[in-house]
Design goal:
Structural class: mainly alpha
Number of helices: 8
Order of helices and strands: EEHHHHHEHHHE
Number of domains: 2
Number of strands: 4
Radius of gyration: 27 Å
Oligomer: single chain
Strand content: 5-15%
Mean pLDDT: 83
Helix content: 55-70%
């Protein structure tokens, strides 16, 4: 029987003494604390992601609108009303703007779900060096990413209700480092 160099106790094992001590020390060390991403990092990543998604759609929309209403743009004043565009043209442009908003919302939602489900981070999150994980530290999947991002749709509810949900998310991030969608989906955004 061998004796432990540290405490003098008898050690009976086929492993060398140093390996036993190393394993005991390794098993007793607590996991490192989770380093949550704060509001500034999350906000920066979100702005980058929105620009990545919105700018190309907006450029295509401008080209589409100019092509569709080219004659109205070239004849800047309507002779009967004195307005730059006829009421019919304005109604058409409004409908097209609403369609643009819907397209941006759908593409943005898919962008977040697909990238967070596949790589645990969007391009903005990668640039800001943060990622999405489950509470237990495992990577997210498409289901988890879908669930956490569907809560973003609450931001777009009419009559200022969406604004209330947006402000609630900011408050939750400040107080708990997680927004409502993170809590519901049991995920968190952490620093890499």
């Amino acid at each position: 029987m061998a004796r432990c160099d540290v405490c003098g106790a008898e050690v009976s094992s086929t492993q060398p003494q140093n390996q036993q001590v190393a394993q005991t020390v390794q098993q007793s060390q607590p996991a490192p604390p989770i380093r949550y991403a704060g509001l500034a990092l999350r906000g920066c990543a979100f702005i980058i992601d929105i620009l990545i998604v919105s700018v190309p759609i907006f450029i295509v929309w401008i080209i589409f609108i100019f092509g569709k209403y080219k004659s109205e743009f070239l004849n800047a004043t309507n002779s009967t009303t004195g307005m730059p565009f006829s009421p019919e043209t304005m109604a058409g442009m409004t409908a097209d703007a609403n369609a643009l908003s819907g397209a941006i919302a759908i593409v943005t939602l898919l962008y977040f779900i697909l990238l967070e489900g596949r790589m645990q981070a969007t391009i903005g999150k990668k640039i800001c060096n943060i990622r999405v994980i489950r509470e237990n530290g495992t990577p997210t999947d498409y289901t988890t990413a879908s669930f956490r991002n569907l809560f973003r749709l609450l931001w777009f509810l009419p009559f200022s209700i969406g604004g209330i949900f947006f402000i609630l998310d900011i408050i939750f991030i400040l107080l708990r480092s997680r927004r409502v969608g993170d809590i519901a989906a049991k995920t968190c955004v952490v620093r890499r």
